[in-house]
Structures are given as structure tokens and as C-alpha cells.
């Protein structure tokens, strides 16, 4: 396969003029028409990628296309920011382990009076101002806070798998658009070759018609095929133009003279091994597992709400009161200070079954997410088997199509000689030209299809990542931002201690086992019939 794939795509790409790469590299803040533009890429983008993307440089090789898509795709950049936003949910959950200090300021006015016989009204208006500081420290919540942290961690793990899925989809889209453009450019070249062949046949038949060697019907047959050939060129050009637009959308840069794509390689050798690899690497399957952990944490939280909790509360108050002067207080002013420390045990007694209903709801939701893991496994295996069989079948067909092209070309060239000798009709020649066109088109499509199918196998396995495709290229570090924020607000010694105590009542946080009876079942790879040589009589 590789002996036929690379030279053909390389030769085909050279036949079509490269798309213009002249782009305005200046970032424009405001335009008369359309949206304003202010070019900006996140910190950490490799300098060469940022420079090429900003300048609108043409892409000429698949590794460059993959790097451009990986670092500049708006979908990926948005997803990475979404993961960063979920990073902050972890320190929010961990903050519940530590102390909380609140303040309260109040100012009060009480207006009262007393009517004494003979003395009139006695004004008893009083004013007060109070400043309070309240310190609350959870001691044991029976897993409420620990469940909240597990919920945040599972959400983060789920979002990271969504990011991995988005990255692999971006890589697959880049490969598909790159190979698709090569295929469609080659289709234009094939259609033009076919048209040139038919036009030469038409010119030859018109000359022979002038010499009364053929009839007008022969000429008209060729004219029909010429017009169809011209329409085929227009269709091929339309498809190539659409592929140019898709290339720009998926990769983020115009296509130049594209080099043949480098061969892909798989981390496994058999479909059965691919099934096992996917179970530990496919982001959709791993995301289903993390989604189950999210609902499991919700269930743990609902169960913890049935239990009491223990908190430590301290409060300090300082207040001033202004009352009317009395015998004991000539100024009427008092300063008050109050310090209180409390251990508070609180919990529900009766709420008409509200909390039990929440537990039941959370349990059913968790069971649903658990079952969806089985569904994800089934779907992944079906997708993987389909992509594997497509890759194997198209790879096997490439050599056969190559042989068909060679035979069709020899048959056509022989028919031209036989036509001049009067042994072949014009219809025979143009029919063989059509067969040659069909063989070349099928060969071209099979080469591109096999390459894309192999990329789909990698995607279904969960291996279509930059670390596998370009192992030496820099990669986005999803842990960097998380490590910067995860311990924000932690109180040394106190947070780890309270966290350990509060997490004791919770159960396991590992992966749940599969419950689908079909989980051990797999389908075998497609069997390609061996080529049997037909003996020459």
C-alpha cells in the first residue's frame, strides 16, 4: 500500500496549481464590512505556529496541518478554556473543609416613650450599634463536603475527556480535509486527462470523417463523450473548490502544494488488541465512566444529607448602646463585649420524606449512568470494527485498482492501434477510455479512503492524539493550570485533616464494573479473500 500511496498522491498534487497563499498578515481592529478582527492566540502557542497562522502562510505538509489545527482551532481553544473553568470547581469544593469567617454590622433605633401623670411624656428612645465576627469550622459532615469534592473532581475528569475527544476530532478533521483535498485535486487532473484523451479522439475522428473512414454517428458519439468529459471536469473542479474551503475551516490556513501524507501507524496489530486498547484510551468510553462518578458523588451527597453534622462556631460581638440617662448610668452610654464558642450538632428530624426521595432520585440517575457505560462500550466496538474493516478492505482494494488502471491503460492504447487498422470501432475506443477513467478514479478514491479509514481506526481506539501522531511536537499541558489553582484557599494541616475525616464514610471512588451480558463478545475482523491467479490458456 505505501509503495503506491505516497508517489501517486505526490504526483497528483503537483498537477494542480497551488491555492494562492497571499494573505493580509496585519491584524485589523475595525473593518467597514463584516466583523472586527483582533488576532490573538493563547500563551503557550509555539512561536512558529503562531507566526504562520498570523501571517496566513500556506500549509504544504500534513504535520504542519496537524500542528496548525491543534494550536489554533477555535473549537479546541474554547474547550481548553472550558476545562480551565471547571478547574476552579475543585478549590471551591475544598474550601468547604476550611474555616469561614463572616462579619455583621448593625445599627438599631428604638423609639419609645412613657406617659406619667403630671409629668407628660418621658422619651425612652435608644440607639445601638453592633459589630460581630462569626467563625465557622466544619468538623464532621458525614461525607457532605467529601462528596462535593468528588463531584467536582469527576466533573473535571469528564471535561478533560471531552477535551481529548475534541482534540482527536480536530486531528481527524485535519487528516480528512488534507487527504480529501489531495484526492479532489487528483480527480481534477484525472478528469482533465480524460477530456484531453476524448478531444484527441474527436479531432482524429473528424479528420477520418473528412476522409470518409468513419460515419457522422461515430463523430457524434465522441462529441457526446467530450461534452460529458467537460461536465466531469467542472464537477471535479467544484469538489476541489469545496475541499479547499473545508481545508481552510478545519486547519486554519490555505492549502499550498500539498506533499504526500506521512504513513500512519497503529499501536496494535489486530482488531482484538484494538478493542482492549480502546477500553483504556477511548475518550468517549472514559467520559462515560466519569459521568457515572459524577452521579455517584451526587448520590453520596444525598445520603449524607440524611445524617447530622458537627460544626465549631465562634462569635465575637462588640456593641454600643445609647439609652436615656438613669440613676445607675448618668451618661446613658454602654459598651458591651461578648465572646462565644459553640460545638453545634445539627441534622434533620422529619421532612415528610423529602430527603429520602432525593436519595431515590440520585440512585436511579446513577444506575442510568452506569448502564450508559455499557452502551458506550457497545457503540465504541461497533465503530472500531467498522473502521477497521473499512481500512482493511480499501487497503486490499488499492493493489487491485492499480492493476485495473494498468490493464485499462494497455487496453485503451491497444484499441487505438486497432482502430487505425480497422479492427476496432470508435465506440469501442471511447468505452475503453471511460473504463480507464473509472479505474483511475476508483484507484484515487481507494488510496484516500484507506488513509482516512486508518485514521478513523486510531480515533476509535483513542490514539489519534498529537502525542502519537507527532511525538516530538510540543503538546498542551492540561495539568498546568489545574496545579496552579487546585490548592487555592487550603489551610495547611487543617484542610488535609478535615478532608480525611469527612471522606471516611464514603465508599469506593474507582471504576464500576460492566454489567452488560454482551460485554465479553466481540466481532472478528473482515476476512479478505486471497487473490487467485487465473491460469493463461
Word description of this protein:
The protein is of the alpha+beta class and 537 residues long. It has a domain at 2-17 and 61-99 and 143-306 and 357-502: Up-down Bundle (Outer membrane efflux proteins (OEP)). The protein is built from 14 helices and 6 strands. Strands 1-4-5-6 form a 4-stranded antiparallel β-sheet. A hairpin with a 3-residue loop joins strand 2 and strand 3 (120-123). Helix 3 (62-72) packs across helix 6 (144-210) and helix 6 (144-210) runs antiparallel to helix 7. The relative contact order is 0.15. Residues 1-28 have low confidence and may be disordered.
Mean pLDDT: 89
CATH topology of the domain at 2-17 and 61-99 and 143-306 and 357-502: Outer membrane efflux proteins (OEP)
Strand order in space, largest sheet: 1-4-5-6
The named CATH superfamily of the domain at 2-17 and 61-99 and 143-306 and 357-502 = Outer membrane efflux proteins (OEP)
Strand % is: 5-15%
Q: Assign the CATH class of the domain at 2-17 and 61-99 and 143-306 and 357-502.
A: Mainly Alpha
- Low-pLDDT sequence parts: 1-28
Structural class: alpha+beta
Largest sheet: 4 strands, antiparallel
Number of helices: 14
Shape verdict: elongated
Distance between the termini: 30 Å
Query: How many distinct beta strands?
Result: 6
The CATH architecture of the domain at 2-17 and 61-99 and 143-306 and 357-502 comes to: Up-down Bundle
Task: Please give the share of residues in helix.
Answer: 55-70%
Series of H and E elements: HHHHHEEEEHHHHEEHHHHH
Radius of gyration: 38 Å
